[in-house]
Amino acid sequence: MIQTENDTLVIAGRSFRSRLLTGTGKFKDLDETRRATEAAGAEIVTVAIRRTNIGQDPSQPNLLDVLPPDRYTILPNTAGCYTADDAVRTLQLARELLDGHKLVKLEVLGDQRTLFPDVVQTLEAAERLVADGFDVMVYTSDDPLLARRLEQIGCVAIMPLAAPIGSGLGIQNRYNLLEIVENAKVPVLVDAGVGTASDAAIAMELGCDGVLMNTAIAGARDPVLMAHAMKLAIQAGRAAFRAGRIPRKRYASASSPIDGTIG
Questions:
Q1: Which residues of 121-159 are buried (b: 16+ CB within 10 A; e: fewer)?
Q2: What is the rounded CA–CA span in Å between residue 90 and residue 85?
Q3: How far apart are the first and last CA of the chain?
Q4: Distance between CA atoms of 231 and 239, rounded to whole angstroms?
Q5: Which helix (H) or strand (E) holds 183?
Q6: Is-catalytic flag, 249?
Q7: Contact 239/46 with Cβ under 8 angstroms?
Q8: Could you please report the per-residue DSSP string of 131-166?
Q9: Are 46 and 22 in contact (CB under 8 A)?
Q10: I need a surface site. Which of 26, 29, 122, 165 has the fewest CB within 10 A?
Q11: Residues 6 or more apart from 250 whose CB is under 8 A from it?
């Protein structure tokens, strides 16, 4: 039997079996959200505080009724924030709504067309949130120097994009991701740009510690089936990384040795 019990994802001192983190937006209803989350095997689910009801409006359906915090680790995020001030206020609200919850996902966007991160505002927000006692998982560009700076600030996980949010383009610069992975002392998770299962597998084969995705699942023709596919892709990619791929060569190499053959 292949032993995987000890191969856990550790973020801010907490261990998780699943390396697939999922979003909760863009599904047709809360029931589909629940079924896709279960099919993905996710333990951490991210929630856009500015767009999702987790108790702010008692008259509306509450996401926590279908994804209860005693079963899932809720990861509040700052989707829709374009300044450090907005991001900090949003996560302070989330902490109140979730009874002192510290683990959060920071993203500060630069513009509505590309949804690229505003790295200047991201750095400012990260410094303020870490100083305020938050455990910050941070969405960022795939710049290795910026990733290092965010780690130095005290972020507990670095989350570089593979491609623009919702684009489905897959990993566009694997060499930058490799540089980040090889130098980071905190978990590195691809966040944004994954389109299908092979994209997720490649991220894991590169050595990333996990992948966070939403659109790739919620926007699929069959979100629940795609969630299951992503779960398998993450597992396969992680196993391949641990096993170690063979070196690439320009020429063929016989599967069986020539020496000692009959005849």
A1: bbbbbbbbbbeeebbbbbbbbbbbebbbbbbebebbbbb
A2: 9
A3: 39
A4: 13
A5: helix 174-183
A6: no
A7: no
A8: HTT-EEEEEE-S-HHHHHHHHHHT-SEEEE-SSSTT
A9: yes
A10: 29
A11: none
Note whether 187 and 21 are within 8 A (CB). Answer: no
With H, G, I as helix, E, B as strand and everything else as coil, classify residue 222. coil
C-alpha gyration radius of the chain: 20
Tell me: pLDDT of 5 over 70: no
| Helix 223-243 / helix 197-205 crossing angle, nearest 10 deg | 20
Catalytic residue among 105, 185, 231, 249: 105
Task: Report if pTM > 0.85.
Answer: yes
Q: Which two tokens stand for residue 53?
A: 């009801």
Say if residue 97 is exposed, middle or buried (CB neighbours under 10 Å; 0-12, 13-18, 19+). Answer: middle
The packing angle between helices 119-131 and 84-97, to 10°, is 40
Please provide the average confidence, as pLDDT, over all residues in the chain: 93
Beta strands across the sheet bearing 210-213: 157-160, 135-140, 103-106, 73-77, 44-48, 20-23, 210-213, 189-191
What the block records as the tokens of 10 is 């550790």
The conformation of residue 23, written as its DSSP 8-state character, comes to: E
Digit-coded pLDDT (tens) for 50-107: 888 887 888 888 899 999 999 999 999 999 999 999 999 999 999 998 988 899 999 9
Distance (Å) of CA 29 to CA 52, 62, 226: 12, 11, 16
- Would you call 204 helix, strand, or coil by DSSP? helix
Place of tokens 């997720």: 200
The CA angle 31-33-37, to the nearest 5 degrees, is 120
